[in-house]
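step=encode ok
step=design start
structure_in=
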């Protein structure tokens, strides 16, 4: 469950802070209700199985499509470093979003004259709404991004020099993705027109890269 930090414990801190009348602004109250370090560590642990599974699939696909990667596992150093970097980025992004969300909820509650019990319910409701969103992001966008990142790393390790962006060629393809695919093959170390080095370009992106040694 995406209850990365002990919400009840944090809300006890929030209530104590409120009752002591030591902090009255939304930023300070949000800080009392949220432990960034603990949250980030928990998020990394939660997303890890998604990324590990995806990395394994990516290695298998490169072995099947290009005959490379048979000697690589998710514990190979360069793959592990890549996944750890993605874990850290995801945890930082989601934690920052959570802090902003909590701050906004508290600010609205203060503006409405709510007491700490009402603020407590606001923060709990926010966490519940976020849990489904976080799980969806991890399962779809982050896993898709990891899949393409591992494939790219294996292609570069093999000495491939060019890449091409591929889209689904239907009316659901975004303009950015279409522009990326329209440029055809480009050097592997250059960004596509959207500024991305590889898919995914956005949360609903369905694109993928192919590689060659031109």
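sequence_out=
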């Amino acid at each position: 469950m995406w209850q990365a930090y002990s919400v009840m414990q944090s809300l006890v801190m929030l209530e104590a802070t409120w009752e002591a009348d030591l902090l009255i602004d939304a930023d300070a109250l949000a800080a009392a209700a949220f432990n960034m370090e603990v949250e980030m560590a928990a998020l990394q642990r939660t997303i890890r199985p998604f990324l590990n599974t995806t990395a394994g699939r990516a290695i298998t696909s490169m072995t099947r499509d290009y005959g490379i990667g048979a000697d690589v596992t998710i514990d190979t150093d360069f793959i592990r470093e890549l996944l750890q970097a993605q874990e850290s980025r995801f945890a930082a992004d989601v934690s920052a979003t959570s802090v902003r969300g909590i701050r906004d909820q508290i600010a609205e509650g203060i503006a409405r004259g709510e007491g700490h019990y009402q603020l407590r319910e606001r923060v709990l409701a926010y966490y519940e709404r976020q849990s489904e969103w976080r799980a969806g992001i991890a399962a779809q966008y982050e896993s898709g991004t990891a899949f393409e990142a591992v494939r790219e790393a294996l292609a570069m390790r093999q000495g491939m020099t060019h890449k091409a962006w591929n889209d689904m060629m239907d009316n659901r393809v975004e303009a950015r993705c279409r522009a990326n695919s329209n440029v055809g093959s480009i050097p592997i170390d250059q960004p596509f027109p959207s500024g991305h080095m590889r898919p995914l370009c956005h949360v609903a992106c369905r694109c993928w890269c192919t590689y060659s040694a031109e």
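step=design ok
step=annotate ok -> The beta strands are 162-166, 185-187, 208-212.
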